[in-house]
Here is the input.
Amino acid sequence: MNLPNSLTLARIFLIPLLVVVLLTNPREAIFGVAKELVGAAIFGLAAWTDWLDGYLARRRHQVTMFGQLMDPLADKLLITAALVSLVQMDLAPAWMVAIILGRELGVTVLRSVAFSRGVTIPASPLGKVKMMSQVIAILLLILGQEYLQQFFILGQIALWVVVVTALVSAADYYRRFTRVSERPKVTDFEAARQRTADKKTPGSVASTEEARRKIASRM
Here is the structure.
């Protein structure tokens, strides 16, 4: 288990802690610190590990299949837990959160279908803007509950930005999905690997030469 993957797992373990802090003991401080500050700190730390694990994986050349699969899953779990908690705390409208989470589910399905066909749909710049807007909106809404009212207003504005970018980026993903769906697809990975392996083995080369001799003898 390398360091980037360990950071990804740490982000997943922080998710239930975030939910517990935000939704329990609403009027009590945690070790003398307001729960809003603790919740914002936990969420900020988890969001920071999202950037850090990707940076370290690229810098150390430790990009693994585990990391490629678990990193986006950890991100979605973190954002989902935070947004659902905000709905429960009456800090975010349920319909806006439903749109955001519905977009996440739809894009995940599209990317999974494309991957099953041998095509990878990379993250779009709009998706990165949406992710950054989500982090800012969640932090501002958590801090704006009991502290600066301006934070809450800015958080609401940021949440609208998230909804707009979510819808636009979803349309962009669907457009790219329909485009790559028209290309040749790989539907049987095992068969493709076997054909590649056969081409590399001496036996397959001999079989090919033998077939060529048979064809030449018939001419």
About this structure: The two ends are 60 Å apart (CA to CA).
